[in-house]
Amino acid sequence: MRVSTRFYAFLREMTGRDSDTLTLDEGSTIVDFLKAVREKYGASLASIFGVDGVLRTGFAVALNGDNVERGEWGRTVLRDGDTVVILPPIAGGLPE
Amino acid sequence: MPGLPPAGVYARDELDLRSIFGWVLDSVADGSCGAVAFFVGVVKSVGVGEKYVNSLVMESYPEHANKALERICDEVAAEYGLRFVGVWHLIGEFEVGEAVVLVAVAGLRRKEVLAALHTTVERYKREPALFKKEVYLDGSHSWIEGA
């Protein structure tokens, strides 16, 4: 199946791309998606993944525009045509 | 509220934030509200690290940001028992001193309205997928991580 993704803010600068489409096995989850992103963009996105390969704290993942809690990533099965986006730390403003 | 554009993100040339003031004030002209409060976010001249700002770039993942802003407005209005909460956030490139976001809250009493305005501002700064880049006079730039 094919899953779309987009890159925003400094992730776009790091990858040099606005978007991409990844081919994943049927039954893949968000964890599998992140693994595929890491494999494809490992060099440019290395700093957003920890040494354990897990997306660093502060980043979020949205599925079709809705955040998915980190604890649900391994249980959230993707479907063909889904859009999965890694969200950089949200940037509306600075602490007062 | 009838006539008001829905809460969400808009290209900078797509929505005149000044017009929102008039729409909101017209909509409370029936006497249904005792208080209306506004918050305007403006590009400041000194940014992170005390560096002088040349411009601010706002971008969004609109499918996420629009849902989040709509949810914030609905939840804050329900939490404080208000008639109306709205957030309109512009995206694009802005000069120092330009307004980039407007929040409007209307309800019966100022206590709830002012508290709800604060809650709405804090939430819109954290929840929608909005990304903010400060471009400095020295040519460097920085993506600003949120609160």
Briefly, what is this?
The complex is a heterodimer of chains A (96) and B (147). Chain A has 96 residues and is an alpha+beta fold.
Largest sheet of chain A: 3 strands, antiparallel
Helix proportion range of chain A: 10-25%
**Distance from first to last alpha carbon of chain A:** 45 Å
Name the beta content range of chain A: 15-25%
Count, helices of chain A? 2
Q: How confident is the prediction overall: mean pLDDT of chain B? A: 94
Radius of gyration of chain B: 16 Å
The helical percent of chain B reads: 25-40%
Largest sheet of chain B: 7 strands, mixed
Walk me through this protein's architecture.
The complex is a heterodimer of chains A (96) and B (147). With 96 residues, chain A is an alpha+beta fold. Helix content of chain A is 24%, strand content 22%. Chain A is built from two helices and five strands. In chain A, the strands form two sheets. In chain A, strands 4-3-5 form a three-stranded antiparallel β-sheet, with no helix packed on it. In chain A, strands 1-2 form a two-stranded antiparallel ribbon. In chain A, a hairpin with a 2-residue loop joins β3 and β4. The longest helix of chain A has 16 residues, at 30-45. Residues 92-96 of chain A have low confidence and may be disordered. Chain B is of the alpha+beta class and 147 residues long. Chain B is 31% helix and 35% strand. Chain B has helices at 17-27, 62-80, 110-124; strands at 8-11, 35-42, 53-60, 84-95, 99-107, 130-136, 141-143. In chain B, β4 (84-95) and β5 form a beta hairpin. Chain B starts with 7 loop residues before the first strand and ends with a strand. In chain B, 35% of the residues are buried. The model of chain B has no long low-confidence stretch (mean pLDDT 94). At the A-B interface, loops of A face α2 and β6 of B.
